[in-house]
Amino acid sequence: MVTSGNSTAQQVYAWLHGRILRGELEPGARLSETEIAGQAGVSRQPVREAFIRLTATGLAEVRPQRGTFIGRISVKAVLSARLIREAVESDLIRMVSANLDDALLTRLDEQLAAQREASERQDVEAFITLDDRFHHSLAVAAGHGDVWDVLEGLKSQMNRLRHITARVFDHQKLIEQHGAIVQALREGNADAAEQAMRLHLRQVLNDLPEIARSKPEFFTK
């Protein structure tokens, strides 16, 4: 797993971070330094450093006399990230509407087609990657690609929820919501584009309670 370039601890952290976000390591699961070191093919020291960093970001927690465990998904953090995303991305979509070009519409249409294909294949990882690419493309088109990088750093807990919901719920609703955003842009209707974006980013308010009821052990307030 470890390659040249970034430090060993950084690579172990990135590997574990991705597994936690994708739900491969479920909330509440115990983390063993020895097992992780063996899986990664490294010593225990970089694993220990990765655990410390995961704990600092809220993705792991240390329980005295028991060990390190995958942290539960913070409902508060999910709702906060959603609120910030809506405030920022509703402004971004207006900026895009004011400076729209055909090349962007073509690119967004291609991304929608790719999302449909990923959904048909039931490829959850590809679908989430394409979802992020759609929003990143809009941020870049607005001239604020760096803003998306900031948002990405705030939404770890939301991303964990997204991987769960993408396995449970039909992707079609999200694709339709993306399509409504693109259609409003195509029509030059900034108000409709903003409304469509807000509606899309509020979908988590419907999904979160249902998932929390079915998997209460995964969540914390």
Protein described:
It is built from 11 helices and 5 strands; from the N terminus they run H-E-H-H-E-E-E-H-H-H-H-H-H-H-H-E. With 221 residues, the protein is mostly helical. The protein folds into 2 domains: 8-71, Arc Repressor Mutant, subunit A (Orthogonal Bundle), CATH 1.10.10.10; 74-220, Four Helix Bundle (Hemerythrin (Met), subunit A), CATH 1.20.120.530. The strands form 2 sheets. The protein has a 3-stranded antiparallel beta sheet. A two-stranded parallel ribbon has the order 4-5. A hairpin with a 3-residue loop joins strand 2 and strand 3. Helix 4 (75-98) packs across helix 8 (156-168) and helix 9 (172-186) packs antiparallel against helix 10. It is elongated and about 60 Å long. The mean pLDDT is 93.
Identify the notable features of this structure and list them briefly.
single chain; 221 residues; mainly alpha; Arc Repressor Mutant, subunit A; Four Helix Bundle (Hemerythrin (Met), subunit A); 2 domains; 5 strands; 71% helix; DNA binding
